TrEMBL record:
This is DNA protection during starvation protein. Belongs to the Dps family. GO terms for molecular function: ferric iron binding; oxidoreductase activity, acting on metal ions. Gene3D superfamilies: 1.20.1260.10. Residues 20-160 form the Ferritin/DPS domain.
Amino acid sequence: MANLKYTVPGMSDADAERVIALLQERLHAANDLHLTLKHVHWNVVGPHFIAVHEMLDPQVEAVRGFADELAERIATLGGSPTGTPGALVAARSWEEYSIGRATTQEHLGALDLVYQGVISSYRDGIKELGELDPVTEDMFIGHTEKLELFHWFIRAHLEDKAGGLSTEGATSEKDAARSAG
């Protein structure tokens, strides 16, 4: 990370650089997630098509909004947000979403794992931000609350009446898609 020319009052440059790094990781994840959700929106088929198709658009819009908030916080702290596709691909620690045209259940099963990863990463950031920057921590908490709600929407389609998930034990999106399908 380049040396900052400034940051917000009361925050050291070292703390600002760490917070910016956490924000940038979430910015890449938010950009990836909203594109993945839109991909699913375009490629979902089956008897529950319209319900899932329409359920995803508000999620896409919310996550796009998260990306904007994350980028603006980076700039507020004196950093320069990176939102290019090449930078996202180079920096990400997760695999490309690999499900193409598939049934609603298959996509929802895969999205269950996607949301698990994104939410876990946000929660890890929250733990670290408590000491570094309560303002950014609050942003992460707000995003996590919405992501957990969206995850519940996904999981409600995968749950049986006893509360079991069809994706239980799946370790890859393809396994989750197969289990849910």
